[in-house]
Amino acid sequence: MNSWKDNIRTVEPYVPGEQPKDTNVIKLNTNENPYGPSGKVNEVKLDMNNLRKYPDAKVSALVNKLAEYHNIKPEQVFVGVGSDDVISMCFMTFFNSDKPIFFPDVTYSFYDVWADVYRIPYEQKKLDENFNIVKEDYMAENGGIIFPNPNAPTGILVDTDFIEDIVKANPASVVIIDEAYIDFGGKSVLPLIDKYDNLLVVRTFSKSRSMAGLRIGYAMGNSELIKYLNDVKYSVNSYTMNTPSIIYGSAIIDDEEYFRSTLDKIISTRERFVGELKRLGFNVLPSKANFVFASHKSVDANVIFETLKEKKVYVRHWNAPRISDYLRITIGTDEEMDKLISLLEDICCATK
Ligand SMILES: *Cc1c(COP(=O)(O)O)cnc(C)c1O
Predict the structure, then answer these.
(1) Which fold has domain 54-252?
(2) pLDDT tens by residue, 54-91
(3) What pTM was computed for the model?
(4) Which residues carry this modification: N6-(pyridoxal phosphate)lysine (predicted)?
């Protein structure tokens, strides 16, 4: 008997970090920003009657603001519903070869899901024993390349030359650099987009700009790349960005001072927290993100994870090859990290 079930696009979905209902939880599991978005959002007056109209399909207000901020042309900016939407559109638009796309074995765990759902062949290139990306692995024939810089969940950053070598070696592929965490101490490869027409840089408002709830992400690249992305977007859903997101997102870009001050706070909290983790016997990878990836020399990561959860502190743990000994811990406020440190002192020193 034939069944409609024979014709389904089956896929193993991405599993996002938990969003607990309990508001007393210290939430260090999804790399959200502990500080609110810029106060400029309070100055926005939304005319609710305007919501009867479709939003601007071109998202011009936000695109123009971002172009001005980054000193590029509006034709070089594509905006989407979070960088997840942007990257998903990129997979659909640029990864249509029979050759496999390349990304690291330990990386953002959505890449293999998009490859699966769009039936794109892929090869996961093994990070070295210190969790570094091996440049030469990305010099073989491929159908496209994507990785985050800094990488997630390791937090490890590579420099501009490293990425330029890969982009230069792959004129027949689009290379996507996912800069979700670049604002926390990395140097962007954005200046390279005028030199290489196969490089696309993706950013998000969810982490450094503290607006995960609005769902805003964007890509920057050669205007031809952006045109092809828009063609696909207009073939799927013309109105991906809703009116409030366009308005609120545009409103905060000018508030550079607040933006820088929250980044500085998160970076200094991170550096202090890393020192404390090391004192407690953790091995901590060098992070340039708003999270750290750490394993304890004697206490099992799952035990730490479960004990913290009981105490209402949520971090992230994957029962996956190579990384099951590690916890990914988002950098919260100093107060939140102090609470975590005191819990870790109990957990890790009691069982030593
Ligand atoms: C958080 C994250 C994203 C997705 O962010 P959005 O909220 O969809 O903008 C993309 N890539 C990496 C590496 C991330 O960590």
Answers:
(1) Aspartate Aminotransferase; domain 2 (3.40.640)
(2) 999 999 999 999 999 999 999 999 999 999 999 999 99
(3) 0.97
(4) 207
